[in-house]
Backbone:
């Protein structure tokens, strides 16, 4: 309203009474702005210095608007040096007050955040960059430094830094964050409900105490990460890989930072025994297809090229390298069932469609790392499940079209609830 009135004054074609009314309305609107601003400042955590100047600049604008109303209403010769100076001063005060108001609501860098690159360079503005941790080993990630502070810096540090300590809170260093603000500590390790930092960022966005007061709020995964960090003790130097991580948190870390904390199988973390190339060539020439299963290619997947495994298999030096053995639809001799006990690193054994019976499985010593065994279409019964319960790492058994009964499955899962039995429809 003030700007419209100033423009009409400049044009000079508006009557005195109309201008007087416009200055009076401008004064009233300034008073209303002061009142609403005062209400908004109560209980807020805006920077005190900026709030002080914004308030008094607003009061000054209202006072000058009143003076200009009085001059317009009661002074015959309105266009004098004094009224001209008041109008210039009003423009200056309005600009300064608006700028500081913009800083309060949008942050100190609001003018350059959306500016072209060359203006940002001139202003020395370096916005926080999106964090990509994909090049860092997960075991090297520290929860606070790498996962929590980046989004706090991006979304909270504009108002809570060494120069602009809104609410007397500075989050730009661990020491200052632990000191808290005017209301005391903002992070209570292990108690997310009492942690003011978390409470503020999860308030309704219409609440005057919602944080951040300007800019983009924390995303769902950022809030989930913050909550998880506080609930687990709010440690500042603890490595992330040492903390129990729900699937939701692993998903959030992957989406925010492009790093995968999904537990990797042991054969991807261990280099494994070096392969004897001569033994590998001899094994392949003996009728087996062999392919690498790890980055180092020291772990192997093996399957026979034929279906008759009557002759004893000589795994030789490769017995510690074989982690997947596919013997589906083959005829396996008793001797070869016994030979399977040599494969201490075997994680998956496929016997589906083979001549396997319960008695044959009893010839295989419990394999320490076997996780999955496929017995689909074999002649096993509940006795096989009872024996397989002794395999310490077993997680999955496939028993479609076998003689396994629901009672046998229930008995197994009573002993080993961690084993999943896929029985299909017989």
Residues:
């Amino acid at each position: 309203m003030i700007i419209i009135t100033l423009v009409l004054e400049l044009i000079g074609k508006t009557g005195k009474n109309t201008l007087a009314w416009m200055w009076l309305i401008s004064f009233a609107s300034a008073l209303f702005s002061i009142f609403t601003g005062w209400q908004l400042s109560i209980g807020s955590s805006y920077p005190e210095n900026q709030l002080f100047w914004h308030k008094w600049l607003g009061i000054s604008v209202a006072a000058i608007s009143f003076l200009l109303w009085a001059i317009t209403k009661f002074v015959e010769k309105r266009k004098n040096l004094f009224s001209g100076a008041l109008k210039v001063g009003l423009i200056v005060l309005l600009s300064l007050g608006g700028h500081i108001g913009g800083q309060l609501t949008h942050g100190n860098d609001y003018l350059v955040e959306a500016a072209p690159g060359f203006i940002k360079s001139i202003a020395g503005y370096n916005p926080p960059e999106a964090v990509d941790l994909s090049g860092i080993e997960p075991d090297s990630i520290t929860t606070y430094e790498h996962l929590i502070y980046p989004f706090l810096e991006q979304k909270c540090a504009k108002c809570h830094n060494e120069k602009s300590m809104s609410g007397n809170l500075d989050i730009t260093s661990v020491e200052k964050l632990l000191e808290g603000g005017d209301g005391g500590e903002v992070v209570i390790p292990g108690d997310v409900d009492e942690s003011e930092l978390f409470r503020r960022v999860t308030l309704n966005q219409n609440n005057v105490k919602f944080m951040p007061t300007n800019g983009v709020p924390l995303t769902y995964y950022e809030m989930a990460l913050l909550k998880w960090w506080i609930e687990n003790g709010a440690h500042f130097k603890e490595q992330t890989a040492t903390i129990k991580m729900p699937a939701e948190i692993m998903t959030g870390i992957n989406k925010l930072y492009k790093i995968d904390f999904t537990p990797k199988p042991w054969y991807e973390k261990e280099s494994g025994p070096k392969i004897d190339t001569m033994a590998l060539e001899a094994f392949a020439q003996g009728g087996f297809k062999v392919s690498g299963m790890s980055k180092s290619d020291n772990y192997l997947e093996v399957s026979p090229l034929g279906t008759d495994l009557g002759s004893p298999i000589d795994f030789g030096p490769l017995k510690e390298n074989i982690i997947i053995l596919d013997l589906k639809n083959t005829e396996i001799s008793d001797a070869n069932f016994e030979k399977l006990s040599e494969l201490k690193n075997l994680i998956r054994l496929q016997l589906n469609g083979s001549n396997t019976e319960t008695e044959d499985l009893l010839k295989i010593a419990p394999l320490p790392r076997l996780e999955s065994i496929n017995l689909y279409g074999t002649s096993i019964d509940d006795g096989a499940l009872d024996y397989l319960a002794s395999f310490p790492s077993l997680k999955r058994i496939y028993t479609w079209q076998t003689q396994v009964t629901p009672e046998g499955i229930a008995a197994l899962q009573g002993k080993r609830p961690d084993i999943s039995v896929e029985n299909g429809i017989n």
